[in-house]
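In the laboratory, one determines a bound structure by crystallizing the protein with its ligand and collecting diffraction data. In a computational setting the workflow is compressed into a single prediction: the sequence and the ligand go in, and a structural description comes out. We illustrate the idea with flavin-adenine dinucleotide.
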Amino acid sequence: MFLKICLYLLTFAVIGAGATGVELVSEMHDFIYRILLVHGGPQIRRDEIKIVLIEAANRILPGVDENVVRTIEKKLGQKNIEVITSAPVTKVNKDSLEIGDRQIPTYTKIWTAGIKANPLSASLPFEKDGAGRIKVNQYMQVPNYPNVYAVGDNSSFENPTTGKPLPATGQVAIQEAQAVVKNILYTIKGKEKRPFKFMQLGFAVTYGERTAAARHKYE
Ligand SMILES: Cc1cc2nc3c(=O)[nH]c(=O)nc-3n(C[C@H](O)[C@H](O)[C@H](O)COP(=O)(O)OP(=O)(O)OC[C@H]3O[C@@H](n4cnc5c(N)ncnc54)[C@H](O)[C@@H]3O)c2cc1C
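The predicted complex, in structure-token form:
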């Protein structure tokens, strides 16, 4: 019984291997081992602690550069973090979680599998994407409402280069906001608005204390 409780207490599951999930498991690993080193004593062995990162897609960090992903996978392996891909979590129980028929015993589950639109903007009578974000046109305007703009995490701008909505990140929100300000000024001055063009400035994912894999600027 004691061993069973230890297994449940010492297994930590993070669901969703986007940047947040990857950064979280890395930091958890370093934090837990640092604590163990100082306070662990003989009661808890390193190999009794299990950190599991679970992802529904067939790879971690969907949409992120392959080289960054390979570096991160290697580092997570070195930290003995178990990564399970193509594994949508189907049920969460008090002392376990389920991936179809497979059960992972754990008391600690951390959900990092994406964000949801704000309830207020989700309730507005505008067209939304699958994540409940307000769809916007090339000028970041809400279709049929030329004086209404949406930017940042609550908006869904389809990148013409990829045909996919831009991700909900800080650099997207900042660039969208700048584009909207300029277009409002153009409108006031009676000038033609300019379509928004996103420029990927780069991407960094940390994997523990003071270390990160990054790609600076995309072509
Ligand atoms: C854990 C985590 C890590 C992240 N790391 C990165 C990263 O490394 N790099 C990166 O580029 N992006 C990162 N992001 C994403 C980034 O934080 C967001 O994309 C960005 O903050 C979006 O900006 P925003 O202004 O659209 O929304 P927010 O920053 O969420 O701002 C919205 C604001 O509106 C307020 N608000 C909500 N409802 C109302 C209301 N009814 N009335 C008035 N105010 C309201 C909220 O309180 C909030 O302050 C991360 C996100 C998370 C959750």
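The helical segments are 2-9, 19-40, 66-78, 119-122, 170-188. Keep in mind that any predicted model is a hypothesis to be tested, not a measurement.
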